[in-house]
Amino acid sequence: MFDPNIPQPRDLLSNSQGDLLTNFQQLNTQFGVNHVPFDDASADKGKHKFVTIVEQSNDPETNVDEQIIYSKDDGGQPELFARPQNNGTPYRMTKDGAFFTGITPAVAVNFDGAGAIRGTALNVTSVTNPSVGRYVINFTNPLPDNNYYWHVSGFDNSGNPVISQVRNNGTYGTVVQTGLLDVTFKNQNNTLITGLVGAVVICWRVQ
Amino acid sequence: MVYKPNIPQSNDFISQSQQDMIANFGDVHKFYGLPSLNDGDHVPFTEGDDDLKGKHKKLTLIEQGAAPATGANEMAVYTKDVGGSPEIFVREESSGDEIQMTGGGLINMNGLVLRAHVIFDVEGNIIEREILDENDEIQRVPISHNVSDVTATKTMVGSVVTDIKWKVTFETAMPDANYFWNVTSFNFSTFSGSITFIRQVQPANNAAYGDTVKTTDFTVQGITNTLGNDYPRTFERILVSIYTLV
Fold it and tell me: Whole-model pTM?
């Protein structure tokens, strides 16, 4: 074990030799847990390999012109927090296995008039087109509940407004479900459109 | 000189040990951290301010081949290659799940990254907001990110504007044209008892998807059945945001 109190003025050289040897070994070994060790041959000596943050029981203090990142127990598991300068109010960085942004995207898809997905979607298995102007977005993993935010936007080539919305002729619970979102595209005459060119649906949930 | 962890040995002469130890202390001091920002990650051992000793100046994370292990009650912050670049990750306790924090120079919002956003008026002028700079002086900055320009194109019949489009041009192009958009607006409306007004901003109507949605720009259109004499009050604020997967 590293001993910060050696050598003492009365220590025998033979003892000091062992103490010094242990200290130098421990310096290198303990430093090398998270850092490129001092005896590494590369130019990366002193840099971090990764940072292991041991859970703290309280919020550490901060002075002026500094911020800290640390971990603290939240609901039985450590989460990352940050604290601004001058012991500012700590703020959360992670929650339940995700980066904490307050509101997080849960679904995102870009599709064409046939319901074919363009590129790669977020948490969407398929987009079906059960009838003219109506599309059902089927989620890969259901959301925790059906109280989420949505955005629907589409366009065609008609020159008329395209009213993009969740289907408005069912109950909320049939249109906005944990596993799907039912949307329609209509023109200014409340008529479902036939020539959808492109559309996007994004859903957000509170973390 | 390379740090020697295995000194002094029991049969070393003091003169040799003195050299070894001073060399070791020099290496520790040098590679732990020196005063300048780019020499080491830590505040130097020789720092005069006790409040700063032991703390970090910055964190340089060498790319790892695999996620490091974590024990109970601890988390790890590290970098790992994603598509040829190191990105920052966090790992949960007990070698749990990995959370990707960054992607392509952006913060990862758990699957999506905000690639561009802008708020503009009917003429295509990007709206500005006031902030205080480091000298506590008011500066006006545009409410936009990765948008170089918004160009309004009006269709006129005589002196009346009958159609309006806005092309939002990106400073840095999108990786492809399969991105997600969010378009909304504040629309001034007057109502008469006999006429139904519909006014909204939406992606521009076009036969081809690629005429509206491009890697370099995105075109939106003010759609209304009565643009005419109400221009320019009709569309007062238009908000566009663009997202892609990480």
Answer: 0.80
